[in-house]
């Protein structure tokens, strides 16, 4: 937390499901307030293919490689959610102007692992790279894990044993001191590829469980069914303390946060600790609108939990020093589907909040709602982008798909709690030279609180 302040960030920018037929690209953004190019995109690295759907990224080396002098955090691992390619990007030679180092073609993943649609990438302490997948090559749900060699970036094979893949996949986090890894579920790629159909939930094409794995033997030990309230469990975060035996997972569809924990018996369990109630509305596709929790993170000191409600349009900050009883200490609205001048009218809100006014920063109306989050190491700056996934962006926020997304900065009171918009910070991806793009997940070159796992 006492590390150097972030100066640049990397984030993938997507053209799939927009009107622009150009490759996705990796943007480098200057976030140093002392710089003459502050809040500007200073470099763009286009991919060599169209319609990849760049999404989340990880590292070839991180804190889990601590003590190994041969490891350097110089390659960004950039999986493509739809094309199933994995781009390995050289960010070490010139951090401000990354270049492609290698492309792992989907055929390797298909044939060697019977997996597709890679999502989360984590480096491992043994030097390998592990990527969770959400499907098989036919578009069915399949929660397996691909291993890459950390030097050659060749596909080694599956991490899980044959026949033990989960029904669905998405995110994962491991805690070596307790010999455990826990993974989450999104849905079948063929169901979610081009939008969200609520009927697919009833048809069993979306997940509602988290899976507990033995980190050493790679065996699946438990499946915790979170029930209807736990439908679509997405981002999962252990506490950063490597001795911790608990963490949180955000469940999108009912906007519930579950705490998962190790029991005195030695197995794992989960309990609901935060619930964002749906609002009764008119003028929307359904009579009730969930918050849709799409990203969560925990500050490096394990004191605060942050999450975004992509549909309601707010970011919330909770004090989690009492792990079982999170306390809301900060909230800010940034766009969303219930803005006061929009077509949706809130008829009943259990939280009795007024419909928020649209958020305008430097003359730009914030499109979409707050989605991906990244917190500065010192916990005082929260960076936010508004794109979720191009197929869902186009469905729920068609204006954003046409006009591009934005990146914002929220000032965080890390002592008493509290969130406020930094009115001097805006990166407008609607003004990109290649046309408006959809900017997604944020990464700092030196590591951050969603990429690094401590041993």
TrEMBL record:
Membrane topology: Peripheral membrane protein
Keyword Protein biosynthesis: no
InterPro entries associated with the record: Se-bd, WD40/YVTN_repeat-like_dom_sf
Pfam family of the protein (one): SBP56
Pathway per the UniProt entry: Organosulfur degradation
GO molecular function, one term: selenium binding
EC number: 1.8.3.4
One of the GO BP terms on file: protein transport
GO terms for cellular component: cytosol; membrane; nucleus
Reactions listed under catalytic activity: methanethiol + O2 + H2O = hydrogen sulfide + formaldehyde + H2O2 + H(+)
Cell location: Nucleus; Cytoplasm, Cytosol; Membrane
Keyword Nucleus: yes
Enzyme class: oxidoreductase
Keywords, in A-Z order: Acetylation, Cytoplasm, Membrane, Nucleus, Oxidoreductase, Protein transport, Selenium, Transport
Taxonomic superkingdom: Eukaryota
Signal peptide: none
Protein family according to the UniProt entry: Belongs to the selenium-binding protein family.
Described function: Catalyzes the oxidation of methanethiol, an organosulfur compound known to be produced in substantial amounts by gut bacteria. Selenium-binding protein which may be involved in the sensing of reactive xenobiotics in the cytoplasm. May be involved in intra-Golgi protein transport.
Protein name (record): Methanethiol oxidase
Organism: Cyclopterus lumpus
């Amino acid at each position: 937390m006492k590390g150097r302040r972030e100066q640049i960030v990397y984030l993938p920018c997507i053209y799939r499901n927009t009107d622009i037929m150009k490759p996705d690209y990796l943007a480098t953004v200057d976030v140093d307030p002392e710089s003459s190019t502050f809040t500007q995109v200073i470099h763009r690295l286009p991919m060599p293919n169209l319609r990849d759907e760049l999404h989340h990224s990880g590292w070839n080396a991180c804190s889990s490689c601590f003590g190994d002098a041969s490891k350097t955090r110089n390659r960004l691992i950039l999986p493509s959610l739809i094309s199933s390619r994995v781009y390995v990007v050289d960010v070490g030679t010139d951090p401000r102007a990354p270049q492609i180092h290698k492309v792992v073609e989907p055929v390797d993943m298909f044939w060697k692992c019977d997996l597709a649609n890679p999502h989360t990438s984590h480096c491992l302490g043994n030097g390998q790279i592990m990527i969770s997948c959400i499907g098989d090559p036919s578009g069915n749900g399949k929660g397996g894990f691909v291993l890459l060699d950390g030097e050659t970036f060749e596909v080694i094979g599956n991490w899980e044993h044959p026949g033990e893949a989960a029904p669905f996949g998405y995110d994962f986090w491991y805690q070596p001191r307790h010999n455990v890894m826990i993974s989450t579920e999104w849905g079948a790629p063929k169901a979610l590829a081009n939008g969200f159909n609520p009927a697919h939930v009833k048809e069993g094409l979306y997940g509602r469980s988290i899976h507990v794995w033995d980190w050493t033997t790679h065996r699946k030990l438990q499946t915790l069914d979170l029930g209807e309230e736990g439908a679509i469990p997405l981002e999962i975060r252990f506490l950063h303390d490597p001795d911790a035996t608990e963490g949180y997972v955000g469940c999108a569809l009912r906007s519930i946060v579950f705490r998962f924990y190790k029991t005195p018996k030695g197995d794992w369990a989960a309990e609901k600790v935060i619930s964002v109630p749906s609002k009764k509305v008119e003028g929307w596709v359904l009579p009730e609108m969930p918050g849709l929790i799409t990203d969560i993170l925990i500050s490096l000191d394990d004191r605060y939990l942050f999450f975004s409600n992509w549909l309601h349009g707010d970011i919330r900050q909770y004090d989690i020093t009492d792990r079982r009883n999170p306390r809301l200490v900060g909230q800010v609205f940034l766009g969303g589907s219930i803005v006061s001048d929009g077509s949706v009218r809130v008829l009943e809100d259990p939280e009795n909040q007024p419909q928020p006014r649209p958020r305008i920063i430097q003359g730009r109306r914030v499109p979409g709602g707050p989605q991906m989050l990244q917190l500065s190491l010192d916990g005082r700056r929260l960076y936010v982008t508004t794109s979720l996934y191009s197929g869902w962006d186009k469905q729920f926020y068609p204006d954003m798909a046409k006009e591009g997304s934005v990146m914002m900065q929220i000032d965080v009171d890390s002592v008493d709690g509290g969130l406020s918009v930094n009115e001097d910070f805006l990166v407008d991806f609607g003004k990109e030279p290649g046309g408006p793009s959809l900017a997604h997940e944020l990464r700092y070159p030196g590591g951050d609180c969603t990429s690094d796992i401590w041993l």
